[in-house]
Amino acid sequence: MPKLLRKPEKKPLSKGVTLIHEVKDGRTPLEYVGFSIVDLDKGAVFEETLTNQECCAVILTGKATVTAGEQTFQSLGTRKSVFEKVPTDSVYITKEEKYRIKGETDTRVALCYAPGMTKRPNRLLPAKDILQEHRGIKMNQRSVHNILPDSLDVADSLLVVEVYTESGNFSSYPPHKHDQDNLPHESFLEETYYHEQDPPQGFVFQRVYTDDRSLDETMTVENEDVVLVPAGYHPVGVPDGYTSYYLNVMAGPKRTWKFYNDPAHEWILDREDS
């Protein structure tokens, strides 16, 4: 198995709580980004106390109540499937905070972690406020939900976004990277991709490669897989007949997303028919 591809674990944690992924706490080569997926049965509870990390809890599917410190956010979540393609509710949780998530229905929650430097207010990120945008042209089109963009001054490190790419299109394309702390030209951000496909037996292809090819992996990515991007370009290709969803988590020394396109492929942006 490629070292950057992680398959779902589906490990019971407690009654009604199943760990689908855990990419953190020494189980990852990433320094800045941590990521977990937890499934909750109706009525089940997941609890965690953060130390020096902040967290964004994204209600991927189902409904849940999130308590963070003294605040409780009830009936969060807007969809039964991510492929309803509507934004969902999330909660930003500051460092050194205890939080609790209770499933009001069967619920899947993504937990996105990054270093927290300051105590910030816990904050609801409601679906109604999520900025939606369309990117790309021709066979390079995707729809984006900006859950926690760098334009929103809520977090110290975290950036969170979800992306839909239709059948036959490429995403994160032309291949781009953000692995150099060289602002204003490029920022250093690690990244994770949590993937789902519709129908679920589908797959996508993702390549992660650096200019010198010291890192160069091309992966067949199936439903519920996670791909780690410690550095390099990282395009995604979607085969005919399937729709791709992925949730991105990014973090680095500066909370700024500034990417650099692969010069070998940037020419496609300048075509006369573009």
Automatic annotation (TrEMBL):
InterPro entries with a match to the protein in the record: Deoxy-glucuronate_isom_IolB (IPR024203), IolB_Bacilli (IPR023770), KduI/IolB_isomerase (IPR021120), RmlC-like_jellyroll (IPR014710), RmlC_Cupin_sf (IPR011051)
GO process annotations (BP): inositol catabolic process
Keywords assigned by UniProt, alphabetized: Isomerase
Reaction equation(s) it catalyzes: 5-deoxy-D-glucuronate = 5-dehydro-2-deoxy-D-gluconate
Protein name: 5-deoxy-glucuronate isomerase
Protein's pathway: Polyol metabolism; myo-inositol degradation into acetyl-CoA; acetyl-CoA from myo-inositol: step 4/7
E.C. code: 5.3.1.30
The protein's role, per its UniProt record: Involved in the isomerization of 5-deoxy-glucuronate (5DG) to 5-dehydro-2-deoxy-D-gluconate (DKG or 2-deoxy-5-keto-D-gluconate).
Superkingdom, natural source: Bacteria
Family statement: Belongs to the isomerase IolB family.
Cited NCBIfam families: myo_inos_iolB
Keyword presence, Iron-sulfur: no
GO molecular function: 5-deoxy-D-glucuronate isomerase activity; glucuronate isomerase activity
Organism (species): Shouchella lehensis G1
HAMAP family: IolB
